[in-house]
Amino acid sequence: MSKAKYGYGWVLKWVLAALLLGVGFFMFFSPDFVYTITGVTILIFSVFRIYPLLKSLHKEVLRTINLVEIIFDTLIGILLVYIGITKGSTLTDEPIWSTVYQYSLAFFFYARGLVFFNSIAFFEEKTEVPKFWAHIVILSMGAIIAVLPDFGYESVALFFLIISLVGAAYLGYDGFGGYSKYREYSASINAGKQVGKDKEADKGINIDKEAPKKRIEDPEEKRPYVN
Length: 227
Description:
The chain crosses the membrane at residues 7-27, 33-54, 66-85, 105-123, 132-149, 155-173. The chain is mainly alpha-helical. It contains seven helices and no strands.
């Protein structure tokens, strides 16, 4: 049995694409799920940054500022997850939760931009041009979310839906490429087997042609001749 050159990763990518689409559309019509996913996203962004960020910062004051930001972000994430799980049926009936959601996101984005620009302006942290412009967008998003009169979970649900569609399209296309290579490899294996069979058949024919034919003697020829 020959070792497979291509695996079955394309299956996982297609399954993930389908799940991503389902989650995106479900979130678009479910406010409690939007709150929960937003909180989980903020928690992942906060918790996974702690060790690499604090280890790479060389000034104690920067470590303290970023740690305080991470603590507040973690509390915001926990709050949104709690609201999504416990207040799911009353989210649309109680406007207070929409206000909490709005200002939580505004604080999250604005604090991230503020900490970043304080780090490079007052504490001489170096940065890259794309990162600089990305934080300008983040800071602007925080200010815009805070002053928008009709901001609600619907805007974030639409954003998540767009991300889901883009991610599903990417995974689907990537899976299609993997499946195409897998089929090409399978076809080459089958073609190789067929070529091997044809060669063996041709070899057998050539052996039959080259082998000398045995002369069949007539039994009469072996009888002694008597005059």
